[in-house]
Amino acid sequence: MTQMTTKQLPLNPAIDPIRIFQCVCTFDAFNVRHGLPIVNPDHARLVEAYLTITALPTPIDFALPAAQFTGVHDIHVYLQFTASSRIQTLDITDKVILEIQASLASLGSERSSKCLKEGAEERLRLIEQLQLTYTPEFLNKMRANIDTLTKQDPSKWITRLGERTTDNWGGTLHPINFLYAYIPLAPVSINKVLAKAQQTGPLLLVDLMDLQLIISHGSLEGDANKRELPGGRVNACVACVYHNDLLDEFKSLEGEIEQQLKEMHAQLATDGPIVHPLTLAQGSLADALKEIKDIEEIARDQKVQLDSIGRTTSQLQQKLDSALSRIDLLLSKVKLTQPGAPQ
Asked: What is the DSSP string of 163-206?
């Protein structure tokens, strides 16, 4: 078995796309094997896949009054893939059964039994409404068989993926017919199945190419002549979770933008390196403007005082000029009165 070292990628439900692959497999003598390709045209990385599998009966010939319904028997599930340039086929049937048993145990006996009885009763009522040649005694016996089954541990209900017995109407009332549609179970994680199936090392979906789910009526490795006659149907659904590296880049870019916005918000906060200095500068400017206003008030007061002083000085100058004129006049009179002055 190929050894792989790739780490499992974490799931991110917010961005990882999910694609649904589904098929209804009808089994007959010429159709004992069906394949469900898990196509990946854009080469996105498959990181997880979830499987649900439900059986459905088919009548041999519904047109006949005594039509007998046929259920599936011993369905096998395989994964076919390419790893390390080799095509490999891995039988995962037993591991799928273990996961279903664990889910039934988790659901609990009361709820599992109630859901099983509801599904079986709906099927039996449909048979009665169709007025086929099944006696009330036969149908009541099937109801009693279901009641007996519901008294058992639900985790023991399924040891094969379908089993035909006289107690379950040839597989028509086997619990696999009511999984997921009536009994709400968690889907089977293929990564968990792969982890349990490996003997020599981990094998992850992300490492596999050309993946295909194969569903067969009976084992592909057994003797075809010893198989139960193929019949019935299987509804298989695989929900694949893909991881796109481009989404990682967008997520990283989103983180960087978010970080930058946080930094900008911090810088623009009132105590940040941008707003805080501006706030301080605004306070200083306000103080400076107040000082300028005070200086302007002082200057206006001083101007008023200077204007008053100027007026007073002007008045004194006028008085001084008048006094000087009078002094000049007196001096001229004195000169005229002195002896020897010209007459």
From this structure: ---GGGTTTTTSGGGGBTTTB--PPEEHHHHHHHH-SSS---GG
